[in-house]
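Hi, here's the filled form for the chain we discussed.

Project: internal
Contact: R.S.
Residues: 828
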Amino acid sequence: MSVLTRDEAQTRAQLLDVHHYRVDLDLTTGDETFTSRSLIRFTARAAGDTFVELKPETLHSAVLDGAPLDTSALDGNRLPLSLTEGEHTLSVDTVMRYSRTGEGMHRFKDPTDGESYVYTQLFMEDVQRVFAAFDQPDLKAVFELSVTAPDGWTVLSNSVTEQQPDGSWLAAPTPLLSTYFVCVAAGPWHSIRTEHAGLPFGIHCRRSLAPHLDTDADEILAVTRACYDRYHEKFDEPYPFDSYDQAFVPEFNAGAMENPGLVTFRDEFVFRSAVTVTERQTRAMVIAHEMAHMWFGDLVTLRWWDDIWLNESFAEYMGFQTVNEACSDLFPDTWVDFGVARKAWGYEADQRPSTHPVAPDPEAVPDTASALLNFDGISYAKGASALRQLVAWLGEKDFLAGINIHFKRHRFGNATLADFIDNLAAATDRDVHGWADQWLRTTGVDTLTPRLDGAGGTWRLTVDRDGSRPHRISVGVHDRDPSGDLVLRERREVDVPQEAPLELSGPRPALVVLNDEDLTYTKLRFDEVSEETALRGLSRIPDPLTRAVVWNALRDMVRDGDLEPAAYLETALAHLPQETELALLQGVLGFARTQIADRYVTEDERPAALAKIGEIARDLLRRTEDGESPGLRLTAVRALVDSATTPDKIASWLDEGTVHGGPELDPELRWRILARLAVLGATDEAAIAAELERDPSATGEEGAARCRAALPDPAAKAAAWSALFDTDDLSNYLFTATAQGFWQPEQADLVRDYVPRFYADAAALGDRRGPAMAEAAGRYAFPAFAVDADSLALGETHLADDTVIPALRRKLVDQLDDLRRALAVRTA
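And the returned structure, exactly as it came back:
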């Protein structure tokens, strides 16, 4: 299949003006394929040759202006067209294949009740798997969809749908949309419908999840309404579509997709088991993120994929900020979670060889395959951090004024980075173009370090910068009170580079924290006194956002070899039992478990690291015996299960169906415990089968696949490997679950011979199953446990193979860099 190049897209956009698509889908033709007919009306501005894209199972016919085209001329995914100047109609009749990889038209059969569901994910170039199209974001058109579905199904789309007398479903014509935004979701949905601000709102899930959606519906709709209202306070342009539906769909590859009028979410956001407030907050943020796209991305769309960061960075920033403003009665400060979780994603991505500017040079994104690689922590977390810094520097009033100019000028059209910066500049006297060059066109992370000079009651604070970007930060100056608590003396705003040192009066501060409101994107270090205070007194810092900044700095110090992993664990043991912010607890425990225990300490040191994490979890359990902090207790139970080195305690919980003192075990905890018992060799296939009979859901099937792959048995490992790489039977989610179970540090000797097999098998899988599965293989099936020089050398040898598809190559570059860092940490 040919990928679309930027040059080809520009040439075609100069030639064509696409007006209207009529798409007819028949979903009643079987479980493997469906029929697709598209009628496209467009204008050629001059005579010329071009092509339409499609990826059919069978191409029955293509007719241009009443004349049949030679279907054998289809070359990969391109059907050539020779056009005269003027108006044209193109009709294409195909059979298309359903997907099990989350691309195109994904089909899912629910093991709980046997019901089937289909939905589209057409991002980048997957519309071609559903209907023929001129597939690039700047050829917007009106779409009119008709869908024939089995009896008992409901069809959802971008606009209001109505069932016709013949049983088919017709969606109202859309406003101008890019091809990748078209969406259909069909099946026997459980739906909750309401109205807000004169618009129909709906939330939908598969029937087997109905009780769980009903439980969460009030919160989901409250968040949706609050964010909708807040965006209408921020944006001059009203919501641009005729309805707002949110469908929670199975086996979804991303967190969500911003299809206009019909946002699709992974249905793990319909919680089957107990969750913490942080996880509910994450769902709210994703709702807000996708709704922001209705304006930035859907109303105004990028012209080419080099500007995808504009969509994602804006929605990421707006998602966190808007939930903070509109849902403060439901959730704590969202920026704490952003700081400890999302920014860490950005920092890590920005320090790898695969880093790129937030706004890459157009020449760096020559085609759709290269564009797909930029959906990472830089386009999301770093870009959102840059926008947050821009708001701190520009002021929110001028920022929103520039945004509204942007919407007004480009509504239902396409825009570029240059347009965005020009529109921001129109609302301020500040040099936004210079800011963009320094922040959006550069790579890497600056590092800021405080330096204190003086004595007695006068101190001069200088911020040393390793890097080149300007930063507007707040500096938190803390003293110790007689009880040992840290008290904020003052918070001062500083521009870096400084024109002059910051003058501080009073005794030498016990703790100086740069960027203590986390308004910029930078790594931090401490002066000598502050580092000692941070390690000894972190839980005494009153502001959770400041604590998040300090924990992030310690994380960076471990990753850079400046702080021993054991010292980080000791700090966690000293301070996490007093922590009240769940986002911090989950972030620190997650880093300790998955990075320090699994990768940064040696095999001999690992049991002690796991024991330390278990000790923290037990301290948290003791703290929550009164039952007043269920989220905190759940976090502790999960950590204790994941760090267990012996099976007895967690096995007794599984047998009794409860943790002593609570909580009772729900499906998520039962599968978590069983997976850990599998790793420890304390369960078997019979127990896994019994648990699957108890929970015969899609999540249960994933849990069983994960547990089976984790069994420390040669036959189980061989069967898991064969399922991953020898056949294409596993769906995207079952592939991921199997890969997650396969590699276990405790089983290093058992799986060592599979390490060299990974590279060739993953490359062959990518060639067969495409970028989504290649990315899954690189992320989840990579032998991350093998932290040794031989494994690194082996990977680097295979990386020299230039036939590996880009999605897998990018994951290998990142994984090998993480392996290189883990080796450096071990030797530091």
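Let me know if anything looks off before we file it.
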